[in-house]
């Protein structure tokens, strides 16, 4: 605003800011709705498996392609699954951030308030590095933990495979 121009009344500025906030909230709701049913499918580099993830990185599909997987050692097949799942999650996270990022920028009416504060843990979910996700560990560490957990479940009286 120039020094010689009359200032806009505070009530008008507040009304504009509220209208802009409501527009941003509506845009966030539309983005969440659009993403709710979205999915992304990725093949492993060796083209043995294909995984599909939902908008929060949750695994929603797993396909073994052709018959390559039949001749793969278990560790190699598991690594292919993890590689494809990690890639799909990363691509989905990028897509989600691209949709929401413009909403985080300051607005023209009230730039001093900044943009909409996105709760990335809520939007992206635990699969993308929220607390307790284990995303800071390598794929082989996570696989080793899963194998260890599965072997514990085969004892009698557990969920995995033992009799009760």
Strand content: 5-15%
Main-sheet strand order equals 1-2-3
Q: How many angstroms does the end-to-end distance come to? A: 76 Å
What fraction, in percent, of the residue positions are helical? 40-55%
String of helices and strands: HEEEHHH
Q: So, CATH architecture?
A: 2-Layer Sandwich
- Please provide the count of β strands: 3
Overall 3D geometry?
rod-shaped
Describe the protein's architecture and organization.
With 164 residues, the chain is mainly alpha-helical. The chain has one domain: Ybab, Chain: A. Helix content is 45%, strand content 9%. It contains four helices and three strands. The protein has helices at residues 10-36, 74-100, 120-124, 139-152; strands at 40-43, 49-53, 59-64. A three-stranded antiparallel β-sheet has the order 1-2-3, covered by helices on one side. Strand 2 and strand 3 form a beta hairpin. The longest helix is centred in the N-terminal third of the chain and has 27 residues, at 10-36. The protein is rod-shaped, with a radius of gyration of 24 Å. The model is unreliable at 131-135 and 152-164 (pLDDT under 50).
Core attributes:
4 helices, single chain, 3 strands, 3-stranded antiparallel beta sheet, Ybab, Chain: A, mainly alpha
Topology diagram in text:
Blueprint: H1 10-36, E1 40-43, E2 49-53, E3 59-64, H2 74-100, H3 120-124, H4 139-152
Antiparallel strand pairs: 1-2, 2-3
Task: Give the gist of this structure.
The chain contains 4 helices and 3 strands, in the order αβββααα. By secondary structure, it is mostly helical. It has one domain (10-152): Ybab, Chain: A.
């Amino acid at each position: 605003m120039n020094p010689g121009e009359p200032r806009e009344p505070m009530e008008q500025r507040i009304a504009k800011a509220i209208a802009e906030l409501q527009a941003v909230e509506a845009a966030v709701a539309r983005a969440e709705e659009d993403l709710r049913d979205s999915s992304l499918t990725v093949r492993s580099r060796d083209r043995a498996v294909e995984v599909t993830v939902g908008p929060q990185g949750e695994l929603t599909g797993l396909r073994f392609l052709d018959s390559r997987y039949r001749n793969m050692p278990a560790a190699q097949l598991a690594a292919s699954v993890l590689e494809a799942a990690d890639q799909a999650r990363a691509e989905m996270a990028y897509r989600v951030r691209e949709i929401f990022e413009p909403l985080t920028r300051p607005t023209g009416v009230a730039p001093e308030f900044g943009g909409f504060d996105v709760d990335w843990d809520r939007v992206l979910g635990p699969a993308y590095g929220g607390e307790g996700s284990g995303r800071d560990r390598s794929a082989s560490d996570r696989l080793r933990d899963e194998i260890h957990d599965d072997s514990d479940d085969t004892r009698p009286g557990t969920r995995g495979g033992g009799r009760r």
